[in-house]
Inverse folding.
């Protein structure tokens, strides 16, 4: 569960990168050029300009990230950060579409399985755990949780969890207030929460879980500073939630989308489709991409750096979602017409 919560917190931070995009000695938000130092994120884009990703610098012996041209499928790599979005660096030092399937999901080779060949094998077209026991939820297929070293059915969202979060679906937690499996960041002001120094993921944004176990207003949330004051330059952290510091004007500008609404939609989609937190989460073949990628695509279209690399990589994913939706509508229309024709035929005959 700890690994899942860490991943969830990373997701929240990614959804706020337009506001809090941390650069080296940050002052304000700007799009970085090729070779400029950056801070990586799960999208691999960070605040790099159009067509670039934030990857490790091959010319620097220390750990450093700069905006670079991504390595494509089959090209040589030093680590996964330099590979294009949805690709990882293989043991053969080539960018490859690997480690995208969880236990119980389809595969064609052992490398497709996320947990590694020491734990999982691709048998009869599916990733299967080599051991008869589990140590974490990720070693169980979607819809199951690891309880007492065995994979058992997990508790679905809004179902009773009787005070334990170990059996809730992926990313969900057991609310002490309602005793139901709940969405992260869903508890309101003054609701009961579980205090944790490391992971504060239960209360809504702008709230934090106090040591007394209730959701309270976060003390370190700042209101918008220097929103219309041109005499002072705003800093990257001086703008309130829903705003970012613009380098050109020196003012806090409104964001173009709702970060929390995006996070909620994304989390609900992951839980609804019971996707696991695989290593290559953004692979074209992963459960997340197949079912939920269109949500991220919508957000990236509003990236202030106008970075098209994300939508180009997945250009047909949102089209598939659209076609799927239209196919369902056409099926309903066709069925309706068929029923009407049958009704007319009955009337004519009788």
């Amino acid at each position: 569960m700890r690994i899942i919560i860490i991943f969830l917190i990373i997701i929240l931070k990614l959804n706020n990168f337009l506001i809090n995009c941390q650069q080296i000695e940050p002052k304000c938000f700007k799009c970085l050029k090729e070779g400029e130092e950056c801070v990586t994120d799960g999208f691999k884009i960070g605040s790099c300009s159009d067509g670039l990703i934030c990857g490790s610098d091959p010319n620097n012996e220390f750990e450093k990230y700069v905006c670079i041209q991504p390595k494509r499928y089959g090209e040589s790599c030093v680590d996964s950060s330099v590979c294009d979005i949805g690709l990882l660096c293989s043991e053969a030092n080539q960018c490859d579409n690997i480690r995208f399937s969880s236990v119980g999901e389809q595969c064609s080779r052992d490398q497709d399985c996320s947990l590694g060949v020491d734990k999982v094998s691709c048998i009869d077209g599916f990733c299967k755990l080599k051991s008869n026991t589990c140590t974490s939820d990720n070693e169980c297929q979607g819809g199951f949780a690891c309880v007492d070293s065995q994979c058992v059915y997990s508790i679905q969202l809004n179902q009773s969890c009787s005070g334990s979060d170990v059996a809730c679906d992926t990313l969900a937690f057991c609310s002490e207030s309602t005793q139901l499996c709940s969405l992260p960041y869903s508890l309101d002001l003054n609701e009961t929460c579980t205090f944790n120094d490391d992971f504060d993921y239960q209360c809504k944004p702008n709230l934090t879980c106090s040591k007394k176990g209730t959701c309270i207003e976060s003390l370190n949330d700042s209101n918008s500073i220097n929103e219309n004051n041109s005499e002072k330059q705003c800093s990257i952290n001086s703008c309130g939630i829903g705003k970012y510091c613009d380098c050109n004007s020196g003012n806090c500008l409104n964001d173009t989308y709702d970060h929390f609404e995006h996070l909620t939609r994304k989390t609900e989609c992951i839980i609804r489709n019971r996707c696991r937190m695989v290593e290559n989460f953004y692979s074209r073949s992963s459960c997340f991409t197949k079912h939920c990628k269109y949500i991220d695509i919508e957000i990236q279209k509003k990236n202030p750096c106008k970075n098209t690399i994300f939508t180009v990589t997945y250009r047909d994913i949102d089209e598939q979602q659209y076609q799927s939706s239209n196919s369902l509508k056409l099926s309903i229309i066709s069925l309706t017409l068929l029923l009407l024709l049958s009704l007319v035929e009955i009337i004519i005959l009788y």
